[in-house]
Amino acid sequence: MAILGVKSTLGKIVDLIGSVHGALHVKSFPSALTWLLTTQTTVSTTSIALTSTVPSNAYYAYVQVVTSGIYYSVNSNRATPSSTVGHEANAGDDLHLYGKRDLDNFRAVRQGGTDATLKVSYYSEVQAEVG
User: Fold this and answer.
1) How many domains does the chain have?
2) Alpha carbon 57 to its chain's center
3) What is the pTM of this model?
4) 80: domain CATH number?
5) Which domain holds residue 48?
6) Using DSSP, how many helices (H) and how many strands (E) does the chain show?
7) What share of the chain is helix, strand, coil (3-state, %, to 5)?
C-alpha cells in the first residue's frame, strides 16, 4: 500500500478534526521528549511496579520485553495481572506508557516458569517556550 501526499493529507485530517471538535493538541514524537533514564528490571512471580525507578518528571516510558513473556496491566485499581487480567506481552514486544497515570499504575508478572527482563527508558515532556 502506498501513501501519497502524507503531509497534505495529514494536514487536511488535522484541520477537519480541529474544525469539528474545537481545539486540537498535537504532539510530535520523539522530538517532543527528552531522555531521562534507562533501567533493567526482572519480572518474576510477584507483581512488580515501575514506581521505584520512575523519575518524578517522567511522562513517557518505552518498555522492551527482552526475555520471556509477561502479563501486564495499567488499571487504576492496580490489579495483579494474570492470564485473565490485563494484557500479554512476549519477548521482543515493545510497550509504550504515556502519562503519570500509566507509569504509576503499571504492573507486570512473568508468564510461565522463567523470569522476564524488561528494559525501560523514561522520557520527560519538552515544554514549549512561549513568547
Assistant:
1) 1
2) 15
3) 0.71
4) 2.60.120
5) 27-125
6) 2, 8
7) 20, 35, 45
